[in-house]
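Much of our argument rests on the idea that a fold can be written as discrete symbols. In the encoding step, the backbone of a single protein was reduced to a row of integers, each denoting a local shape. This step matters because it turns folding into a mapping between discrete strings. For completeness, the protein is quoted in full, as a sequence line and a line of structure tokens:
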Amino acid sequence: MRKQALLFLFTFGFLIVSTAQKKKITLEDIWGGTFRTEFMDVLRSMKNGKQYTVLNFNSSPRSTSLDKYNYETLEKVETVVSSSDDVPLFSSYTFSDDESKILLATEVEPIFRHSRLGIYYVYNVTNKKVTKVSDDKIREPLLSPDGSKVAFVRENNIYIFDVESGNTKQITTDGSQGTIINGVTDWVYEEEFAFVRAFEWNSNGTKIAFLRFDETNVPLYAMDVYGQNLYPFQYEFKYPKAGEENAIVSLHMYDVATGSTSDVNLGDAYYIPRIKWMNSHDHLSVQTLNRHQNHLKLHDVNASDNSVSILMEEKDDAYVDVTDYLTFLADDSFIWVSEMDGYNHIYRYGRDGKLNNQVTQGAWEVTEYYGYDAKTKKIFYQSTENGSINRDVYSIGANGKKKKRLTSEVGTNGANFSADYTYFINTYSSATTPYQFTLHKASDGQKIKDIKDNSVLDNKLEDYELSPKEFSTISINGNDLNMYMIKPADFDENKEYPLLMFQYSGPGSQQVANRWFGSNDYWHEMLVSQGYIIACVDGRGTGLKGRDFKKVTYLNLVKYETEDQIAAAKKLSELPYIDEDRTGIWGWSYGGHMSTNCLLKGNDTFEMAIAVAPVTSWRFYDTIYTERFMRTPQENPAGYDDESPFNYPEMLKGKYLLVHGSGDDNVHVQNSMRMIEALVQANKTFDWAIYPDRNHGIYGGNTRLHLFTKMTDFVKKNL
């Protein structure tokens, strides 16, 4: 008897009329650069609001140039600086506040996810002089507001370089590997609070506020590095796992004129995730959190005497997200973004920290805050008002009135505004349209001109067999969950197809989104062309559907997310065209934890799973991320252990592929090694692969091609 379809699918996008003579995507296409996408790299508005700069990379001859364009005409005004005999090939640039100097980054090498080492030069826009900051590789250089000095970090100490004289002054002396860090963050701050430079110049360049990390008591983590050496060596770094000691962080103030450093007493602050100077050169804002991360304080530090007062506080029964959108207006009143009313919205506060008004409100989320135009008293932002899988750009009065949608295409719209808010460059994409860049008026969103599209890629894709994502919702465990499905171009509803589900599922994340392809999407299209159906469901705990939906997983990470994926797979298997005996799931990182749990706890539903770089116990992961959602293992042992798959390896019935990089500084290979040992002792058959010295991204050389070849073969053999 035919199974009854349970889903109503709302499909939009292009229709494949004929697949005759269409090419099928190959792994070599995906990882060989065939589908390279064009962007506008390092786009920044000049202060005059009339021009913008873009970093252009030229392949023949290999060079880089920083070019200035006119907003109104889009014509190139000049090349500000280009690589030459005097200026090495540079990969990024930063203007001083007065735009008199440009800091150019060369010979950059990664440390961890956000941190870099490099050789830096200062370019004088007026006299074209190029000055090298240091012969040694340094970290996080920052020009003073007038461009006369560069502060930077070398070997855990802060230095100031005088551009005119060429002299360098050391302003901290106690920095040392594994104990004291000045001016940059430790590993866990970098990874989980997403910032590296932990110092800031004030508005007139007279003071530098900086953080100091004492990680003496933080436990060491060691990774074997194999390389091409006869003997491997161990790379060690401080990594606080859940429940262990964190670095002791403190705030300090350096006076440039006197050369003196003073301490700032922030009371019981446990974490200091953000520091930001106000417009007044004597006032620094500091955000602090307690260890549970459910009580955030915004402090006002008076740099003239280091006195501290609290501007505002925010509490939550679960946790408070750190905002990146704190904006101080001319009088140091400020704009704040928070989900305190249940959805992420914009709030306006007075200089005294008292709430003036909530600017935006509704059952939708502000996803980006772009800025405030003092002339028109408008605030510009991006949100999900047109559906949680879409993004649009809006303007609204600071009083919360006269809201206007500035973008019209359905999909994902993002904006880069001119400094005076006359124009914005819209970046648009959808599940069927590669990135397009267009110029618009900020007053009403009217399109002025097309700047750049990906017509070359679009035309190339015409030759390939592609299938559209069908966006829908699926009712699971009392929630309407966002979902997409991709069916073969020659789909026949009278046939049955194997189903491969993909997810990430981490707190606040989103995979079901109306935006252009990533590499996983191309791989999914390749599998679809070979007769598989792909589905992705964003379950409970994912983002952009309100606080309660996101934070329901608090203290029980992976529990409800796993239940939702298993229930979704069961419901999808009831569709007449899904082969209920051929259901697989895969994911990376958090998604690898999820796919592992689904295969074990849903062993009557899933026949196959792939887990890449998975967490297998939250006891092995870092303090800031894990404790934000779980508290400590000492407080919540069941929350840590009940969803740890190596505690129930006997539940494995299906086919399982486990992959990890041995050099993963984020999700340590320890996670997979413990899972492997548990499965071995349970006498379970499975497949696994370790990529030597590869980090959490498992890339470099042919690595991604090899990995996805292995994954493809595993899918074709077992699903």
